[in-house]
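To: structure desk
From: M.T.
Subject: fold request, one chain
Message: Could you run this one when you get a chance? Sequence is below, nothing fancy, just the single chain.
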Amino acid sequence: MVRRYSISTYLITAMLAIVAPFCLFLWFLAWQLQASEAEAVDRRTLRSAQSISRAIEPVIDSMVTTVNLLSSTEELAKGEFEVFHRRSQFALSNTGQFVILVDADQNQILNTRVEYGTPLGKISDAEGFERALQLGKPVATDFFLGKTSGKWVFNVLKPLDISQSSKARVLLTTMNIEHVAATISDLELRDGWKAIIVDGAGNALDASGMTPEIRPSTDVLPAGMKSSDLSQMPSISHLETTHRQILAYARIGGTNWKAVVWGPLASAQASILKTWQLLIVGTIALLGVCILVVFAASKLLQREVANITRMADELGAGRVVSPATSRIKEFDFIARALSNASYDRSNKEEQLTMVMRELAHRTKNLISIVLAMVRQSAKNVDSPQELVAVTGNRIAGLGQSIDLLTSANWKTVTLNSLIESQLSKFGTVGSDIITSGPEFHLGSDAVQNLGMAFHELATNASKYGALKSEAGRIEISWEILHDEAGDQLRIVWRETGGPKVTPPEKTSFGTEILDRHLSASTNGQTTLEYHSDGVVWTLTAPVSTLNRSTPG
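Reply: Done. Structure tokens follow.
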């Protein structure tokens, strides 16, 4: 037999199972924290330097890719420098890169910083020029002050194939230091910490101020260190200065640069130690509070469960129950759900009765309409076969209206949709059948009655009227008329271009639909005129009648 326990027992047991090991683990962490914190700070410092390096390396790679791609262009090989200048300037317009083409004497042939044809002198970076020719591959330079830009820049240079007909010997792309300074300024550092980029010539890119600047590395690095000292040091070092400091650096691939991050150890450890101390003290205090809270909560849960149980019993007995108000949101949801379920159970029977009445009402209407079709059609046919065909077509037209209502859940259907549904098999709406008028929604009764009218008009037009001739055309227009008696919808069916029209000798079922039946069902007025160039049928009925659905 399964043993059962109260909610209080389960809650207290669960709390102790969670809190007790957690408290023990916190004491263990506190004991380990002092030993491991220094190592963690070292790792974070090195990762900061490495993150700067990883952020800058794609910039260098993109510049190498640029010179590799541009060096293989046909314009450069043929010496079409103006075309090369224009295309390079356009391609690199949003990258922060500029292209410079240099001849064997280090003269600038073009520079995309300025318009083509602007007088240019020698390049500022002669050392990088010679190094690129010596190595025969793309090289990245140190920081230097550009003559054309007047700013601190760096280059990536690539020697060109001397077999080309062009006089260009080195292609380089240059970039302002501001584009790499953002990688330093975006790095979140603690108070008293600093990050720089040092190049191979001892220049330090310092982005700690409002604007990045280039300074000698000895003015920036701690304890008067030189940039050359970094190569003799491990990637992470502890410096014994006035305040113990940690310094880490990472090499930036493809360059002679290093990303350097350093700062005082005390600022890195103080916040973490304080956080853990507060966490331990708070946990001990919280443990006592949790015991009291769990006990009180268990009593509250027991009362709320009893209320829910009572509601469930009443629901099972088939009674409508009111929701018991609970101070617990989830129990309140359950209580409302049980209450709604009891009301739904009661309402289902009423809804079912209403649905059966509505179904019976609509079925009787459809049977009456079908019987009227059969009786009236029988008066104007000469054989049973013709009666079947005529009646079948009219019932099919009624079925199309019912399909429209079914797809709209027996609510409203637009007048334009009804016309397209009824006339699509007789002609092409938009070509030989033209419709115009504002959007108007019809109720279920109006859909059935107007659907029969449009079907009769279209059938007549296909047999005797406009749709029998290729030049025939039907125009259906409607508008809303405003007067003191109320808004009226006026629909006009006009046929043109068909055979000559003659009035029929006797009244047919279609004529009764278009005249007496539609006038009575819509509380409106109809006219049917047989002009020599085509039939014109008009319906004017109250808007309130046409857009009213059958009550259900």
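Reply (cont.): The chain is about 50% helix and 20% strand. Let me know if you need anything else for the meeting.
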